[in-house]
Amino acid sequence: MSVSVVRLGSPRKQNEGLRLGTVRRPPRGVPKSDFARLDFYDLWMPDLAPSAELVSFAQHSNGDEKSWKTFDRRYRAEMKKPEPARLLDLLAALSHQTNFSVGCYCEDERRCHRSILRKLLTERGAEIGAS
Prior knowledge:
Distance between the termini: 14 Å
Strand content: 5-15%
Oligomer: single chain
Number of domains: 1
């Protein structure tokens, strides 16, 4: 059993399980009834997405290492708040019982909050599957 970290909208892998969207906004132009069918997500979990302010910071930064470190620090601070922290603890525990995945739309995981989310889950003892 494990949690996979995926790009939302990518084809599902065998035994991936329930797909959780850790994004601030649903996919544009896609009817809600098609989210799962089109491999976006089965369940929306915006509490694990970066805040609107942090997303804006990322979109307006120049993408350098300093900006990324600032984003990482701020996102981790947001995830220390009670609601997201409890969700992370829950997901880490569930990863030992069932397969599921978490994800975001970003093309490059290395500069996406899901790379930090992977680390946060690992730090909580989650079983992480191959990407």
